[in-house]
Structure formats: C-alpha cells, structure tokens
Amino acid sequence: MATINAKITAVGGYVPDYILTNAELETMVDTNDEWITTRTGIKERRILKGEGKGVSDMAVPVIQQLLEKSNSQPEEIDLVIFSTATPDYLFPASACIAAKKTNLVNAFGFDLLAACSSFLYALSTGAKYIQSGMYKKVIVIGADKMSSIIDYTDRATCIIFGDGAGGVLLEPTQDRTGLIDEWHRVDGVGEEFLLMPAGGSKHPASLETINARQHFAKQDGKNVFKYAVTNMANATLKVMERNGLTGDSLDWLVPHQANKRIIDYTAEQANLSKEKVMLNIQKYGNTTSATIPLCLWDYEKQLKKGDNLVLTAFGGGFTWGASYVKWAYDPN
Ligand code: COA
To answer: Which DSSP string corresponds to 238-262?
Structure first.
C-alpha cells in the first residue's frame, strides 16, 4: 500500500485590529523605537481588546477560513488541535470552545502546550493521525493572546509579544508532499529563564502571587536568546542535512518570530538569501504559537506546489525543533 502523507491544503490567519506601536510603548515604559527596532526588529504588534474575549475568539475566524478555502463542511472535521500557551481557561480546553463556536460536531480535539514551539508539535501530532489512515481532515491551530499574561510595566517582555492566530488544514495525500521529516526536542533547562511562575498547580493563585506579579510571563532575555539562537539554527541544519537540502534547494525558511537577530543568524547558518526567509515580526511581534501559521498565511500567495519549506521554532521549556514540509498547492 502506498504511504499516506499529511499535506497542508489550506491556511488561515487572524490578527486583532488594535495596533500597539513602539511609539505607544514609549509612553508606557522607559523604552524607545530605536532600541526595540535594533534589538528585536519589531515595530508594532496587535492586541485583542474587549472584555471577556479569549484566544478562542481569534481561532474562530481561522477555522472558518480553513473550511471555506478547502470547501469543507464543519461536520467533516475529524480533529482539532489547538496549540496555545494562553487558553481561555486552564480547562475546559480551548479546542472544545472553538469547536462549539464553529460547529465541528464530529470532531475530537485537545489543547497542546509547548510555548513557542507549540504549532510545530501540533502539526507533527495532527500529521500522525492522517498518516495512520485514521482521519481525513485535521485542523491545527496556533493562537495566543499574549497580552493576557504580559506585564506592561516590564520593558524587557512587553515590547516583544503580541496577539494573533493562524492555522492549517491537513488532509491525506499519496504524493510526496506535506510533512516529510521533523526533528524536535525538549529539555527542562528553560524552566528558570522563561515562565509564568504562578497560576499552575505548583503555585496556585493567591493574594501573595498576585501581589508579587507572578501571573505574568517572566523572561531572562539574555539567556533565552543564547539558547534560542544556537538551537534554532542547529535544528534547521539537522533537518536540511538529512534531507539533502541546501541554501539553493530550500525555497523557504519559516522561522518562529521571536527576534529578528535569531532569524538572521539561522538564515545565515543555512546559507539562505534574505528573500527566502519569511518575516512578519515587524508587524506582529512574537505571537508565540501563532507565528509560523501567520507567516504561511502572509506568504501563501508566493508559495508553489513542490516548494521546500523548513519550519523551525524555539520556545519556553526549552522546546525546539524543525520540520520539513513540501508545499502541496499553487496559489489560486
Ligand atoms: N528598552 C530599552 N532598554 C531596555 C529594554 C527596553 N525595552 N529592555 C531592556 N533594556 C535594557 C536593559 O535594562 C539593559 O540595560 P543595562 O545594560 O543598563 O543593564 C540593556 O537594555 C540590555 O539588556 P539585555 O537584556 O542585555 O538586552 P538584549 O540585547 O539581550 O535584548 C531581548 C533583550 C529581550 C530583546 C533579547 O534578549 C531577546 O530577544 N531574547 C530572546 C527573546 C525570545 O526569544 N523570547 C521568546 C522565546 S521564544
């Protein structure tokens, strides 16, 4: 029997309307546009405003786009994997809420958390259900409302993050397109360098945790940077090497958008010209689980069937890795 691959057949994205510029951040914390631009490459980020709006509200339009673009009915969706670090609630899973709001009445689903690497891990997981022959239509969402856990008095973190959502539909193919290879890792080294200290089972919410501002993301940027830059480049090179990809034969690098300097270093190590690197950090900042699908969404019209893409990420945990995807369709 021919091998079944999981190919991406549609891409969707959503960013909120509100634009938080570097100029506005200058009025909130002691920072400036020049510092933020040269250290990170970020000019602005989107923020989800509105009382009671959660991450699932950004995923709903993404799921609707995926259904529409692929001519699928909601009841045909078998599985929805919702990767996020900022779910609507600790439980129930945001996958349940998004499925209800979009009428995915026959789907099973769950949330997946691996910080900024979540989308890559969810893509890997979703692909396995297709490759096994079990399911025909799997939605993989990457979405985060980072503004819900950012301390807008902490200049080292508030300048980096933004809100957004993206996603893909996976379907079976017997072509050699779709997810071809992957290399992923976790370690516990990142625990002390990037975390939200309270609100989990170790330090449940209390007056003390709130007063100590422990329900916000804390980051030791210098250390995170050091690990991110080497691990993202190494994962990319590993996947390129074992699939015989070079700077010439690789068409696109789709890097997690955490810091432009990390992206530039990875591209340089892979011997890739600037035009082959997807970049939207300047307008969205780091949207955590959403960066990679939002890149695919922004660049979809430039992708051609057969293009070689390497998707790579690094995030809290630490978590990191790279996936090799052969693009399955031409622009409409
Ligand atoms: N505006 C102005 N100055 C700032 C600032 C800001 N927003 N944030 C920090 N600074 C200051 C620091 O206080 C420090 O001042 P000092 O030298 O007087 O102590 C100086 O700038 C340098 O700080 P440092 O933290 O060393 O800067 P950096 O070059 O490492 O850049 C980050 C900071 C956060 C941009 C960078 O470390 C980074 O991108 N890290 C990785 C982030 C990441 O990838 N996170 C997500 C993982 S997926």
So the answer is: HHHHHTT--TTT--EEEE--S-HHH
- What residues does each domain of the chain span? 5-176, 180-326
Tens digit of pLDDT for each residue in 223-253? Answer: 999 999 999 999 999 999 999 999 999 999 9
Prediction pTM value: 0.97
Whole-angstrom CA distances from 297 to 6, 62, 97, 162, 282 are 18, 10, 23, 17, 15
For residue 198, give every residue at least 6 positions away whose Cβ sits within 8 Å of its Cβ, in sequence order, or none.
204, 205, 206, 209, 212, 214, 215
Q: Which residues pair with 46 in a beta bridge?
A: 19
258: Cβ below 6 Å to ligand 1? yes
Atom of ligand 1 nearest to the CA of 156: 8
- Render pLDDT for 102-142 as a digit per residue (tens, 0 to 9): 999 999 999 999 999 999 999 999 999 999 999 999 999 99
Q: What is the distance in A from the centroid of ligand 1 to the CA of 294?
A: 25
184 is annotated as an active-site residue: no
The verdict on whether 116 is a catalytic residue reads yes
CATH topology for 180-326? Peroxisomal Thiolase; Chain A, domain 1 (3.40.47)
286 carries an active-site annotation: yes
d(CA 13, CA 287): 12
- Tell me the best of 24, 159, 225 to mutate to test the pocket of ligand 1, counting ligand atoms within 8 Å of each CB and taking the most: 225
Return all residues near 285 (Cβ < 8 A) that are at least 6 apart: 40, 42, 44, 45, 159, 160, 161, 162, 257
5-176 has CATH 3.40.50.11030 classification: no
**CA gap 167, 136 in Å, rounded:** 16
CB 130, CB 136: distance < 8 Å = yes
Cα(35) to ligand 1 centroid in Å equals 9
Candidate list 116, 259, 295, 308, residue with the active-site label = 116
